[in-house]
């Protein structure tokens, strides 16, 4: 039998690809700049192995220019260039990646700065351009060639003039339509923004001619507009720098520059992981709760970079919900990206990184608690509620991670304490961790139920947050001490015989108690004498798991 090859209608394929891979048009620039950076990288690697070649850092750059009148946007690089065959093979064959081939050939050498791998990024140019022209001269060649395409219907190649080695990509930007705007891709300000967003940490300078107002020479108070060539990108990512070269101020500036928040970070965490998975990360614990934090609008996530190129603005898989307040970025070479370089397949590396990050955040919070108590309390006031939700959600699966991070206001000096602190200073005869729920500390302190426990000299945790008691039910016990609500029937205190109401006291008042229960119309299960009251005549107590406060909350919840 003869095996036949699949054929594809390349025109249709191309249209499908251009219009369905990417969700944002603006990433075309990311793709072209990444290609330019790869091209320079290739020269760099060549120079590493070829003793006759010198790599002068300043000779290598990427330049982005616009021509409003002709509606063109040009991306020029001083990289390795393409021969006629390479233009045919790399730009004429969809899904062929010269960069991937280069990486494979040069595996032995350190080739992992190269970004390309899928062989489709280039075509993103057709999302914004009617015509794409590529003028290129390959390293070691005397000839230059011009490749040109109007998109789906094919391309032409002819020889042309070009002095220096490298590539020039000229996009004829589409006209605005009713639905789509394209003019913005000719505007310096917008282009700068896109470069900053996706390509800020490309290792080579990305230059643009920027309009600047300058005082006019010889004339006072008059300005003239001049074009000045500026490097737009920062080039060296802060996360690749050595921790001890960086000051808190550097991190704070990064936080502000990246607009992670308008506040100052309370703490930064810089990770350079070199183990099972290689990645760099800079994480921040913000100082304040973002205004939309406890709403549906808030989106958790970290920025995800692959080799310094932004892949995803908010990668939510990197953070568990209970650490959703953490801001920052992760850069890794090890990710298996999908073709659009936007989404990730459910990736083992990503799962590993996420786990790693989770543990790191936890240990950093613990050290904040230990070494910077005041800052920790500030953190907990801002985000503690999230941690308590974290304990409660997922059936308490994360309680081990989170319980040591919790704090509650204690009856002792009305200060925040951790469970560990509470338990470690319990008197020997105290069996339970006592808590009292209520709307506010004031109201809790007026609860008759508290008196007996306090009189014993036991500390009581004040639960003023709806979630508190639910979270604690998930923890059940801490260091083998169970939690007990002060309003529960059996407080585990009345051990002395004299503390129990006598039979006489019960029987003498039997009629009165029955009458009371009758008046309360069976809203209470029964009325009985109690020794727990000191200055109050009466109090409510509960039996079983649910306390009065929990019932209130459950009743208030929408069904
Ligand atoms: P990828 O970058 O994933 O390989 P692209 O579609 O972006 O895919 O590019 C296809 C190929 O074209 C690249 O692998 C590279 O070999 C070549 N190429 C693209 N742009 C340039 C450039 N500016 N200089 C040299 N080669 C380039
Ligand atoms: Mg590419």
Automatic annotation (TrEMBL):
InterPro entries per UniProt: HATPase_C_sf (IPR036890), HATPase_dom (IPR003594), Heat_shock_protein_90_CS (IPR019805), HSP90_C (IPR037196), Hsp90_fam (IPR001404), Hsp90_N (IPR020575), Ribosomal_Su5_D2-typ_SF (IPR020568)
Region feature (A): 1-341
Tree of life domain: Bacteria
PROSITE patterns (UniProt xref): HSP90
GO CC list: cytoplasm
Residue span, Histidine kinase/HSP90-like ATPase domain: 24-177
Subcellular location: Cytoplasm
Residue numbers binding ATP: 31, 35, 77, 82, 90, 96-98, 117-122, 167, 341
Region (Disordered) location: 490-509
One of the Pfam families matching this protein, by short name: HATPase_c_3
Record GO terms (molecular function): ATP binding; ATP hydrolysis activity; ATP-dependent protein folding chaperone; unfolded protein binding
Keyword list, A-Z: ATP-binding, Chaperone, Cytoplasm, Nucleotide-binding, Stress response
UniProt biased composition (Acidic residues): 493-508
Subunit-level organization: Homodimer.
PANTHER family reported in the protein's UniProt record: HEAT SHOCK PROTEIN 90 FAMILY MEMBER
Database matches in HAMAP family: HSP90 (MF_00505)
Family membership: Belongs to the heat shock protein 90 family.
Described purpose of this protein according to its UniProt entry: Molecular chaperone. Has ATPase activity.
Name by which UniProt lists this protein: Chaperone protein HtpG
Species this chain originates from: Paenibacillus crassostreae
């Amino acid at each position: 039998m003869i095996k036949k090859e699949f054929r594809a209608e390349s025109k249709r394929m191309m249209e499908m690809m251009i219009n369905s891979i990417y969700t944002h048009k603006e990433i075309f620039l990311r793709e072209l700049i990444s290609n330019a950076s790869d091209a320079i990288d290739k020269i760099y690697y060549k120079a590493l192995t070829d003793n006759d070649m010198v790599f002068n850092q300043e000779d290598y750059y990427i330049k982005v220019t616009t021509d409003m009148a002709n509606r063109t946007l040009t991306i020029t690089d001083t990289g390795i260039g393409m021969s006629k065959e390479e233009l045919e093979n790399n730009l004429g064959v969809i899904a062929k990646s010269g960069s991937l081939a280069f990486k494979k050939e040069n595996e032995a050498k350190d080739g992992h700065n190269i970004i390309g791998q899928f062989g489709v990024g280039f075509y993103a140019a057709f999302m914004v351009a009617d015509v794409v022209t590529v003028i290129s001269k390959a390293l070691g060649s005397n000839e230059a060639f011009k490749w040109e395409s109007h998109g789906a219907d094919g391309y032409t190649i002819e020889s042309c003039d070009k002095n220096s080695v490298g590539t020039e990509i000229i996009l004829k930007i589409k006209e605005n339509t009713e639905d789509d705007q394209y003019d913005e891709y000719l505007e310096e300000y917008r282009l700068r923004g896109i470069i900053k967003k996706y390509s800020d940490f490309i290792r080579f300078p990305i230059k643009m001619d920027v309009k600047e107002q300058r005082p006019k020479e010889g004339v006072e108070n008059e300005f003239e507009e001049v074009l000045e060539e500026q490097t737009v990108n920062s080039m060296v990512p802060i996360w690749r720098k050595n921790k001890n070269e960086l000051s808190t101020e550097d991190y704070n500036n990064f936080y502000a520059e990246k607009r992670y928040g308008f506040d100052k970070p309370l703490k930064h965490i810089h990770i350079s992981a070199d183990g099972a998975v290689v990645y760099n990360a800079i994480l921040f614990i913000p100082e304040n709760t973002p205004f939309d934090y406890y709403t549906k609008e808030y989106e958790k996530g970290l920025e995800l970079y692959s080799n310094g190129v932004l892949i995803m603005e908010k990668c939510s898989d990197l953070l568990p919900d209970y650490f959703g307040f953490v801001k920052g970025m992760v850069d890794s070479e090890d990710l298996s990206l999908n073709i659009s370089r936007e989404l990730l397949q459910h990736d083992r590396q990503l799962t590993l990184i996420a786990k790693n990050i989770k543990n790191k955040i936890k240990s950093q919070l613990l050290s904040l608690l230990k070494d910077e108590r005041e800052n920790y309390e500030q953190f907990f006031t801002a985000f503690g509620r999230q941690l308590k939700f974290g304990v409660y959600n997922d059936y308490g699966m994360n309680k081990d991670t989170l319980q040591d991070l919790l704090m509650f206001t204690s009856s002792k000096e009305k200060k925040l304490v951790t469970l560990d602190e509470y338990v470690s200073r319990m008197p020997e005869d105290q069996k339970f961790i006592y808590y009292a729920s209520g709307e506010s500390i004031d109201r809790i302190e007026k609860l008759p139920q508290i008196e007996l426990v306090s009189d014993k000299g036991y500390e009581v945790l004040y639960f003023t947050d709806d979630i508190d008691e639910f979270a604690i039910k998930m923890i059940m016990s801490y260091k083998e001490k169970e939690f007990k609500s002060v309003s529960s029937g059996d407080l585990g205190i009345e051990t002395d015989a004299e503390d129990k109401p006598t039979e006489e006291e019960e029987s003498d008042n039997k009629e009165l108690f029955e009458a009371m229960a009758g008046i309360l119309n069976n809203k209470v299960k029964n009325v009985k004498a109690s020794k727990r009251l000191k200055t109050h005549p009466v109090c409510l107590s509960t039996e079983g798991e649910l306390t009065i406060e929990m019932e209130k909350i459950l009743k208030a919840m929408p069904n």
